[in-house]
Amino acid sequence: MLHFQTRKALKIGRPGKISVEDVTYLVRRDPKKFSRVKELLLLSEELRRARKAFEEDEYGVLK
Per its UniProt record, what InterPro entries does this chain match (predicted)? Predict the structure, then answer.
């Protein structure tokens, strides 16, 4: 199933690259998969912010 979805995503977007939008587009009609993708994207964003805050704190630079 994943192999099939990956091939479809490659056909939709730019050749050779799969973007987040491509994956989101493919699973948009499956509520369970769509909510999981959204959840993972939110978690990824939270982790990115936490890493950035940690690096700023580590170097003594706070915003």
Answer: TFIID_TAF13
